[in-house]
Every structure is written in structure tokens, then in C-alpha cells.
Amino acid sequence: MYAIPAFVLLVAVEALSYRFAPDDEERGYELRDTATSMTMGAGSQVIGLPWKAVALLAYAGLYTLAPVRLSAASAGTWVLLFFADDLAYYAFHRAHHRVRVLWASHVVHHSSVRFNLSTALRQSWTPMTTLPFWLPLALLGIPPWMILLQQSVSLVYQFFLHTERVGMLWKPVEWVFNTPSHHRVHHGSNNVYLDRNYGGILIVWDRLCGTFQAEGEPVRYGLTKNIGTHNPLRVAFHEYAAAWRDVRSARRWRDRAGYLFGPPGWAPAADRAGLTARAEA
């Protein structure tokens, strides 16, 4: 919450930088797109604040059950928290790209065809899907307030990744940390960039798990099928509506489950075969 004024100021500074130092290879800002991102960010804060109270209660409940309660006065607790939180973020992020009902929440963040600091503020209005991924940290004995604090630190760090104005950094930094270059790849809809670079602060989880992709060809931002709207309600809920239509049209429970829990774009084998045949024809 304290960082929001700084975020808004930095968005303005970056927008002005395009005005006075334009770059033909960078997409920059567009008023309606930026307004939509800001609206989504404001809505996420309104919904997210009471949800934080629910999350805090959940963390506190599991913390009381933890076999060991770690001390905030210990440097080791903070080191454990840093790596545990970042790994939790990687798991959360990867799952929200590979499970459609989770993707329906996260797709909001990828719905802009531009990539700038305002894109970082384009957040989901359904934060409830994030909670399970951080519950294990409370069971490890990490105090709940520390978990919430580190989540905030990670989000502040990631704000600065959403820019085209920063090129490649020093190679050792690029190898260990998530950078604007790595995150541009993550927001790309190019086939080579799909489902890559899920990291939060660190990029090492992607390197270890085989989901890393370096920036190469120019990035095409947005979705594989863009929604073409600036309506905040449609941006927030369009994928839920699409999933519901697919579930209603399915004839078998197996297909209904596939539409919800399969990856985005999943379709029954018969439908995929029909699409392939029409494409070949």
C-alpha cells in the first residue's frame, strides 16, 4: 500500500520517457490500455485487502500447528523465508499458467498487448487462488507477518521487471535473478516464449526445472488470442466465462474436468482431431 504512490509516479516518469526519448522498437504507452491497467490495480487492492485478513488467519492457524516456531530474530529464518517464498511463487505462477481454472484468474495480468510499468499493476480481482501455495511456509514455523512481508517485497521487486526501457544486465545478474529481459519473455505470446520464466525474484528455479528461455526474437505481448477490450469487468472475468461455456457444452464429465483442470487451450481428443483435419484441408 505504501508503495502505490511511488508506483504511480514511476509510471508517469516512464510514460514521459517515451515522449522525450521514443524508441521505434518499443510499444510504449496507450491511454486506454494504461487506464485499464490502473483500474485493474485499484480493484485488486480493494478486493485484496480483506482477503489478506483471511490469509493471515489461515497462516496463523497453521503456524500454531507447526512442530517448530522459528524466530524472527534469527538471520536463518529470513534466509529460509526468502528462498521458500520465491519457490512458492514459482509453484504458484507455473500452476496458474498450466491449469485453466487458475489461468482464468492470472490471465488478467497478461491481457495487455503493451509492456510497461503500468502492466505490473494489471492484477487479478480473484486473489483467492494464491493461498494454498504459501500455506506450507506457515507449517515450517515462519511467523505469518513475515510471510506477508516477504510477499510484498517480492511484488515490489517484480514491479520493476515490467519495462522495455532496460536491456540486458550484467551476465551474473541475468543468470541468478529475474530481470526485465527474462520477464519480457514471460509476457510474450510467441510460441518459443509460451510458459517460460515463471520466477519471482530469482530465475534459478526456471533454470533448474527446464522452464527458462532467454530473450531472442522480438517479443509479441499479450495473449495467443487477444480479448480486444478495455472493459475492466471483461478483462477480469472473460476467461471464467469462456471456461463455463466450454463446460456447459461438454457431454462427458471427463471433458468437463479437462476444460477446468487441463491447460489453457485443452480440448477433447475428438475436437482436436477435427481441428487438425480442417487445418490440413
Describe the structure.
This protein is mainly α and 281 residues long. 58% of the residues lie in helices and 0% in strands. The protein contains twelve helices and no strands. The protein has helices at residues 4-20, 31-65, 75-98, 100-106, 135-139, 144-159, 171-176, 180-186, 204-209, 232-249, 253-261, 269-280. It starts with a helix and ends with a helix. 28% of the residues are buried. The mean pLDDT is 95.
Descriptive terms for the model:
about 280 residues; mainly alpha; 12 helices; globular
Order of helices and strands: HHHHHHHHHHHH
* Number of strand segments: 0
Distance between the termini: 55 Å
Structural class: mainly alpha
DSSP helix count? Answer: 12
Note the main sheet.
none
Gyration radius, in Å: 20 Å
Determine the mean pLDDT: 95
* Stretches with pLDDT under 50, minimum 5 residues: none
* Helix percentage: 55-70%
- Portion of residues in beta strands equals under 5%
What characteristic shape results from the CA principal axes?
A: globular
